[in-house]
Design a protein that fits this description.
The protein is an alpha/beta fold. The protein is built from 14 helices and 18 strands. It is elongated. Bound molecules: ligand BES, manganese (II) ion and zinc ion (ZN).
Length: 493
């Protein structure tokens, strides 16, 4: 991971291969730099060669007139639309542009952007996240890693008097991004590496490093607990299921915990209701909710958040085979409700049902689950927002706000009781699919039946993987979505 540091500098004295300077639309460049360059920067603005449009860049060689070899103008868009997310994206753009320009040392200055609304610390964290996340690479399976330009090795934040706040924001960014890297790695590993056993051993190793207690329940113990819904999905797989329990109890002794639940489906073939083969390879990302929860637990501990937090990740594959569940089969869940399995591809809700049931043991203050649950959620919202549902509006609002701050937006969908009609079964307490319409909602309505505490559900099917235009800190493959949202939520809730 790249190293971020803070230094006091006059702008004209900043030394770097690339010095990123952020400008709003119509804003003039800093005088100190412009005058050393003979008014060239302001002439670019005047001549509309650099407009300040969001994420636009213009590289200017300084020909020895500054200590920085080149200045990179980076647009922030309209001043009134500024947010931490704009800076996160612009910093990412700066970092990837500096890398393409074969720079190894970048400097930037964000001191002028802080205000009452945006503290220097928050902005440093956002900029740090944008830089680190944009430079993520997953090339460990390649004999010869691809060249993306040079390797950007260091970024210096040139500061005035906001040095301590900036340093603290960067420290948070590094801790959080390490956890996002972990979640991305877990997602990007192929299904034949990232098995339930692999997820469990990685969770144990990473938890040990930061002082989170991590226990893994084996099949025998899962059977003893009566998690028949989870085990129904695991039946078809040769890989043994695992149930990961992570506990980080750093709050008051009697404070009820916040429980995070993540879908840890390491590969989803659909089972007997098998999926079409087009893009089926993407179903290695079906454990992204679980990866986010593991990442969030690690981040919470490295940030020493003063709360009691529990993470639960049921892990299995969903495979067809001679022992696999069949449409029409029944399962008995841990809370006692029976489930008619109409479609074996609606497996996420089956494994989550028992994790949500297990969460009751903690008498939680709140439970938040994340899952790549439905294609229907992608149909509804596309890939720019996760679906958000819940039984407690205060909790839902807190999750939504945390997502907004993190640049991991969620959009609430209804959970009216009318939707329950669609999942009534004639033989069991509930069936695992509704009809054609409102599939993201009927999935959430199914999960709701296994909760009796304040609960929120985030459907990340559309946001868990895939680079997106306009989000330059998202790299190809796993997005590590949810880690930063959860960290913000845990801090504020
Ligand atoms: N893991 C999938 C959902 C998914 C689809 C995630 C596409 C990411 C991209 C989930 O297990 C699933 O298969 N859901 C079914 C539910 C249906 C059978 C009711 C779906 O969405 O088609
Ligand atoms: Mn499925
Ligand atoms: Zn799935």
């Amino acid at each position: 991971m790249i190293k971020l540091s803070v230094k006091s500098f006059k702008l004209a004295d900043v030394k770097a291969d690339v010095f990123a300077v952020f400008l709003f639309e119509g804003e003039n460049p800093p005088k100190e730099l412009d005058s050393k360059l003979g008014g060239y920067l302001s002439s670019l603005v005047k001549g509309k060669k650099f407009s300040g449009k969001k994420l636009s860049v213009r590289q200017v060689d300084t020909l020895g007139k500054l200590k920085a070899e080149c200045v990179l103008l980076v647009g922030l868009g309209k001043k009134e639309d500024f947010s931490a997310e704009v800076l996160r994206a612009a910093s990412a753009k700066a970092a990837t542009s500096a890398r393409s320009a074969r720079g190894t040392a970048m400097a930037l200055s964000i001191g002028a952007l802080s205000s009452k609304k945006h503290t220097a610390e928050d902005l440093a964290q956002a900029a740090g996240e944008g830089i680190i996340l944009s430079l993520y690479k997953f090339d460990q399976y390649k004999k010869k890693p691809e060249e993306n330009g040079a390797e950007l090795r260091s970024v210096v934040f040139a500061c005035g008097d906001e040095k301590a706040e900036t340093a603290s924001g960067l420290d948070s960014a590094e801790k959080i991004c390490r956890a996002v890297y972990l979640a991305r790695d877990l997602g990007n590993h192929p299904g034949n590496t990232a098995t339930p056993t692999f997820l469990a051993s990685n969770a144990q190793r990473e938890c040990r490093k930061v002082g989170v207690k991590c226990r893994v329940l084996e099949k025998r113990e899962i059977e003893k607990l009566g998690m028949g819904s989870f085990l129904a999905v695991a039946r078809g797989s040769a890989e043994p299921p695992k149930f990961i329990i992570m506990e980080y109890l750093n709050g008051r002794k009697n404070e009820k915990p916040i429980v995070l639940v993540g879908k840890g489906l390491t590969f989803d073939t659909g089972g007997i209701s098998i999926k079409p083969s087009g893009n089926m390879e993407d179903m290695k990302f079906d454990m992204s909710g679980g990866g986010a929860v593991i990442g969030a637990m690690v981040a919470a501990a490295s940030l020493k958040i003063k709360k009691n937090i529990v993470g639960l990740v049921p892990c299995t594959e969903n495979m067809p085979g001679g022992r696999a569940i069949k449409p029409g089969d029944l399962a008995r869940s841990m809370v006692g409700l029976t489930v008619e399995i109409i479609n074996t591809d609606a497996e996420g809700r089956l494994i989550l049902a028992d994790a949500l049931g297990y969460a009751k043991k903690y008498k939680p203050r709140a439970v938040v689950d994340l899952a790549t649950l439905t294609g229907a959620c992608m149909v509804a919202l596309g890939t720019h927002a996760s679906g958000l549902f819940g039984t407690d509006q205060k909790l839902v609002d807190a999750v939504r706000a945390a997502g907004e701050n993190a640049g991991e937006r969620c959009w609430q969908l209804p959970l009216w009781e009318e939707y329950d009609e669609q999942i009534k079964s004639s033989v069991a307490d509930v069936k695992n699919v509704g009809d054609r319409y409102g599939g993201a909602i009927t999935a959430a309505a199914f999960l709701k039946k296994f909760t009796d505490y304040p609960w929120a559900h985030i459907d990340i099917a559309g946001t868990a993987y895939g680079a997106k235009p306009g989000a330059p800190y998202l790299t190809a493959g796993s997005a590590g979505i949810g880690v930063r949202l959860l960290v913000g939520f845990l801090k504020s809730f």
